[in-house]
Amino acid sequence: MTSAIWTGDVLGEGYEQCTIDLGTDPDGEGEVATVVVRRKPRAEEQVRGAVLYVHGFSDYFFQTQMADFFAAQGFAFYGLDLRKCGRARRPGQTAHFAADLRQYDADLDAALSLIEQDQPGRPVTVVAHSTGGLIVPLYLDRKRRAGAVLPVAGLVLNSPWFDLQGKPVLRGPGTWMLRGLSKTSPFREFKLPPSIYGETLHISGRGEWDFDVVLKPLNGFPVTAGWLNAVRRGHAELHRGLDIGVPSLILRSDKSVFTKDDGDPDRGDGVLDVRQIARWAGCLGGETTVVPITDARHDVLLSVPEVRAKAYAVLEDWLGRHQSVLLEDVVAG
């Protein structure tokens, strides 16, 4: 890999980005790239490991509070905007579209290579949210089966997308329908009910977070047949069982709140069925710790302050108990 070129990022002082070209899009939408954002360590911070954050659908990296948390624990922090997502999306490209989740292997390879260049020899903890929480375990399992040596030493999944929510019919005949549509009309969009999740987060509603609604629309990007088929194929692979080869922590809410009739939308997962996360968590292989966080949102680390504090306390405890593998030169005590 050639030397990285870092430039200023939209997050402002203390953040830089590096664009990595990945060549021609297999899905015919021009040239694709991935963008890595790094938080520059401050003079007083001791760096002994690294974190790579991978976002979910209709999302991108903007969570500076999370980056500050990991920096305080001794990790250099990097956020990844996958191809056609966030900073990496180019004009004319369908947001977040990939006909096969294996396409993201190149993005993850490039990001890990860049971190190795920036933090040579340091172990990497991957943190992934929602769809990213499906993409990353599949990647780690493929790499392990291929005999690849990665710097990844641990995995943290924040409300990973382990199954298709909704009625059982969607997971049977609906999945077979997707297989046909993905071949004939991969870019066909599905009209889905509007979600209340975005407004619970953004400062334009009642939320705390000032993210770019062009990169992360309040109602999300359209879901396409080809992309959803790729996700369903990923679900099937996960359900057959993986062996990711590293310890994992799964954070999730204790309940789902899809509509205001279900309860307070600020205090539940408004996107996924948390029972499915619980059901399939054991499919990762190896040591897996699952912690339901009472009243957490879909993005657990964007929950209301007191809930968020509980989630960070759980995360800090898990990092501490695994520091002998996640950080350099630390002897487990």
Automatic annotation (TrEMBL):
SUPFAM superfamilies registered for this protein in UniProt: alpha/beta-Hydrolases (SSF53474)
Pfam families: Hydrolase_4
Superkingdom of the source species: Bacteria
Serine aminopeptidase S33 domain residues: 46-254
Keywords attached to this entry: Hydrolase
InterPro entries linked: AB_hydrolase_fold, Hydrolase_4, MAG_DAG_Lipase
Keyword ATP-binding: no
Gene Ontology MF: a single term: hydrolase activity
Record-linked PANTHER family: PHOSPHOLIPASE-RELATED
UniProt-recorded name of the protein: Alpha/beta hydrolase
Organism, as annotated: Kineosporia babensis
